[in-house]
Structure formats: C-alpha cells, structure tokens
Amino acid sequence: MGLGLKLLELISEALCLNPNHLKDMDCAEGLLILCHYYPACPQPELTMASTRHSDNDFLTILLQDQIGGLQVLHQDQWVDIPPVPGALVINVGDLLQLITNDRFKSVEHRVLANRRGPRVSVACFFSTSSAILKIIWTYQGIVIRRESTKIQGNDSERLCSLFALKRAWWDFCSTTFQALNWSPYF
Ligand SMILES: O=C(O)CCC(=O)C(=O)O
Ligand SMILES: [Fe+2]
C-alpha cells in the first residue's frame, strides 16, 4: 500500500497535479492481490503461462521469483523482463491510461511457459470501482481506450459500447469459470 501510494504521488506530480490528486480520486482504494503458481511445463512451445494482456487497474506492483518468463510488448517486439533480486516490477494499468488520456500508457505483457519451475509471482493491483464512476463522468467525451477507438458513434455511444464490451467479457468469464468449476478471477 505504501509503495503504491508513493507511486501515485509521484505520478500526480509528473502530471503537474497536487501530490494527493490520484489518491483523492480513490485510485488506491481497492487493493487486489493475485498469487500465481505456474507449474513446470514439459512443452513450453505449445502454450503460454499467461497470455498477452494489459492490467485493468491503475498500477500493478509485481514480485516475481528467479525463474523468468515475463515479457512486455515494446515497439511490436516482446522484450524479456528478467528477474532482479530484490526488485519489483511496476506496470501502468488501463485505468491510469484512461484517466491520463494516454499520457501514461498501459503495457501489454505475457508470461512464457518454462521447463524449469514452478514459477511463482505475486501481483498487487491498485484499483477501485468508485473511481471508475468518477472517470465516466469526468472524461465522458474523450476517446479513452483502445477498444473504444474501434467503436463507431458519438462519444457517449462509444462509452456505452465500451461498457457493453466489458459486461460481455465479464459474463463470458463468469460463465466459463462456473462451467469449469474454477473460482472467478475477480
Ligand atoms: O506472473 C507474472 O509475472 C505476471 C502476472 C500478471 O501479468 C497479472 O497477474 O496480471
Ligand atoms: Fe498482468
């Protein structure tokens, strides 16, 4: 929590805002921690440990062990993020991209499967639903997300479509998780 708040202060200052601005928007109100356990994989060329995605939050603080496999997409190339003992990885998430109107860009990343293992990582996601509501009211009219740029219509129609997209994704996940008897991601 302490590190997340400090980062939000620094990002606020980088945006020429009051240091408390992002904290006061409740950007650190919700903390979700996801612990990953990736078993050793006998045929890593056939699968992924984690498929490409960007995080749906403001900031992610990630602790990874020494196995490696994390990559980020930079200028259309997958770049390794090798583990550094004692270091944490900080990812900018979609919501930070959204509220800064692309000044901070969320990063697509993935994790390669590995013959060595298991690999363990711990991801701390800084997010909140109340901030999302504020964003909608504050930033209505701004083209905000990659998906929304592909959606036709005026700005409020785009926002509705964006949320329909998210809703469909959510429904798909919960149906799949229920069908497979997995616990939900969120
Ligand atoms: O395991 C990792 O290093 C990445 C995990 C991740 O990207 C996530 O939880 O969103
Ligand atoms: Fe992620």
TrEMBL record:
<keyword id="KW-0408">Iron</keyword>
<dbReference type="Pfam" id="PF03171">
    <property type="entry name" value="2OG-FeII_Oxy"/>
</dbReference>
<dbReference type="InterPro" id="IPR005123">
    <property type="entry name" value="Oxoglu/Fe-dep_dioxygenase_dom"/>
</dbReference>
<dbReference type="InterPro" id="IPR044861">
    <property type="entry name" value="IPNS-like_FE2OG_OXY"/>
</dbReference>
<protein>
    <recommendedName>
        <fullName>Fe2OG dioxygenase domain-containing protein</fullName>
    </recommendedName>
</protein>
<comment type="similarity">
    <text>Belongs to the iron/ascorbate-dependent oxidoreductase family.</text>
</comment>
<keyword id="KW-0479">Metal-binding</keyword>
<dbReference type="InterPro" id="IPR027443">
    <property type="entry name" value="IPNS-like_sf"/>
</dbReference>
<keyword id="KW-0560">Oxidoreductase</keyword>
<feature type="domain" description="Fe2OG dioxygenase">
    <location>
        <begin position="27"/>
        <end position="129"/>
    </location>
</feature>
